[in-house]
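Hypothesis: this fold can be encoded by more than one sequence.
Test: take the structure tokens below, design a sequence, compare later.
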């Protein structure tokens, strides 16, 4: 798989648990050249300790990171299992998706996304106010609501009988579901 033209978001699945500071350090070690001209990312989210969703400030940096990680994975010199383009693209979209799914309480979670402006971390509330139109959040809320209702309909259950509306599936954000599994 490759990264589509213009795509700045990657999902990286690792074989070990990471916290935000460790994940950023690992990226700096693996893709050090990206930091040569400044802080290359403006969004990072770890929905679980082995999955990182990262937005690079431009597509070229995203592609360079993807290329370096892919080559190191092939050589077996890195603890990354999978790297691929994220389902949702764009800082505004990912912030809106997170807030639409997690709500106000999600802003206080210790694993809430981190947003950076020129390398300086912004409070998540400020990032939402600065970058996301309320209409975009409403759009994703409505989308998730209709998806949940559709998946809760008879005949849409998974083998465990709970369907996508079951407790297990709703704990992760929608863009994390395909990447949180092997």
């Amino acid at each position: 798989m490759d990264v589509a033209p213009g795509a700045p978001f990657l999902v990286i699945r690792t074989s070990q648990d990471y916290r935000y500071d460790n994940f950023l350090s690992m990226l700096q070690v693996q893709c050090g050249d990206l930091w040569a001209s400044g802080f290359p990312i403006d969004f990072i989210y770890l929905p679980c300790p082995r999955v990182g969703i990262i937005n690079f400030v431009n597509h070229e940096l995203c592609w360079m990171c993807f290329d370096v990680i892919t080559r190191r994975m092939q050589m077996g010199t890195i603890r990354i299992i999978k790297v691929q383009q994220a389902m949702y693209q764009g800082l505004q979209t990912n912030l809106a998706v997170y807030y639409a799914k997690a709500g106000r309480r999600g802003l206080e979670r210790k694993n809430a996304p981190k947003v950076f402006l020129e390398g300086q971390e912004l409070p998540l509330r400020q990032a939402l106010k600065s970058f996301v139109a309320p209409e975009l959040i409403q759009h994703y809320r409505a989308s998730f609501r209709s998806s949940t209702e559709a998946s809760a309909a008879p005949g849409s259950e998974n083998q465990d009988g709970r369907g996508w509306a079951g407790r297990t599936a709703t704990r992760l954000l929608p863009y994390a579901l395909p990447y949180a599994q092997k």
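The helical segments are 20-30, 59-75, 91-106, 124-131, 134-151, 167-170, 177-180. DSSP finds seven helices and six strands in the chain.
Hypothesis status: open.
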